[in-house]
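Re: [ENG-882] Designed sequences occasionally contain unexpected residues at chain ends

Forwarding the minimal case from QA. Structure tokens:
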């Protein structure tokens, strides 16, 4: 990717027109980055992510070269591959403990980009933010940022771009876009993946991994109403216990390790884009669930969806 600097441009996409003149350096803290080495264990990696309240970090080799990214979703995919199924757990009482040790001591370098969600791409601090939006619209959640010497100096996330998007929509003609409903923009139309609150944690992790999503809605087993949110970040609790939580119900696990996840953020399809972004920002979440009149999940709007909106507004504007 050729490094470019910002310049004035004329673009029918208001997001492109705005973000083309916002260098990535404006959205990141240079030097504020945590690294992992390829020979460190997943246990060490999970501790670093948890203590710093981050979901991913770049991984380096012995010479300091960045090899790629590891994040919570990579760990989810790996956990699913080695975790014992229900039959094995019943036949072998030590299966969970054995798998827990295998996962905890796995070198980070062997789990790099297991999920395929955050591959290493060359994005530079002086690039316009539109360069990053193009990648993030494909589902990238975060990306290391390089300086002119090709050294990683910061981490850019979807959340940082959405925060700036919120500011953009408060001014001029952009206010009209902010007042568009999710329905008119075609956002929140895809039915989300859901698990019952009585399903096991392993069921939830399998749903995340098999469907290549970052989170699943948790619904009441008897009513189908939204009652929780199980996301990849909740794996922190699983890893902390070395997997004994796998057999617990999603409800019991979340109440113990992530009570906040039992209070999912929800909006309606006639909610405005501004209201959606405000919910994401105020509650510091990566997605909001779209519900119907019976409080059943019928869609969701994630940071990735907003990146897609910003990247290709023409597909959303006509409605």
């Amino acid at each position: 990717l050729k490094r470019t600097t910002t310049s004035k441009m004329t673009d029918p996409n208001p997001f492109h027109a705005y973000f083309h003149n916002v260098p990535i350096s404006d959205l990141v803290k240079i030097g504020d980055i945590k690294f992992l080495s390829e020979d460190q264990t997943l246990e060490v990696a999970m501790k670093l992510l948890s203590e710093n309240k981050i979901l991913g970090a770049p991984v380096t080799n012995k010479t300091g070269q960045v090899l790629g990214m590891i994040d919570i979703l990579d760990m989810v995919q790996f956990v699913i591959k080695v975790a014992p199924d229900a039959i094995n757990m019943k036949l072998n009482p030590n299966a969970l403990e054995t798998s827990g040790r295998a996962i905890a001591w796995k070198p980070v370098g062997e789990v790099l980009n297991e999920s395929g969600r955050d591959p290493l791409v060359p994005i530079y601090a002086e690039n316009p933010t539109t360069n990053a939006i193009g990648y993030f619209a494909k589902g990238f959640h975060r990306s290391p940022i390089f300086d002119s010497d090709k050294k990683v100096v910061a981490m850019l996330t979807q959340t940082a771009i959405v925060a700036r998007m919120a500011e953009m929509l408060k001014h001029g003609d952009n206010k009209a876009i902010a007042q568009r409903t999710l329905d008119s923009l075609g956002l929140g139309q895809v039915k989300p993946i859901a698990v019952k609150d009585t399903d096991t944690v392993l069921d939830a992790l399998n749903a995340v991994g098999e469907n290549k999503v970052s989170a699943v809605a948790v619904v009441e087993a008897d009513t189908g109403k939204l009652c929780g949110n199980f996301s990849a970040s909740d794996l922190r609790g699983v890893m902390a216990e070395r997997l004994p939580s796998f057999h617990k119900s999603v409800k019991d696990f979340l109440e113990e390790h992530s009570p906040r996840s039992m209070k999912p953020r929800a909006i309606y399809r006639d909610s405005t884009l501004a209201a959606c972004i405000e919910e994401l920002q105020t509650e510091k979440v990566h997605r909001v669930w779209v519900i119907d009149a019976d409080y059943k999940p019928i869609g969701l709007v994630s940071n990735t969806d907003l990146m897609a909106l910003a990247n290709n507004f023409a597909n959303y504007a006509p409605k």
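QA comment: On inspection the terminal residues look reasonable. The CA atoms of residues 82 and 102 lie 8 Å apart. Proposing we downgrade this to a documentation issue.
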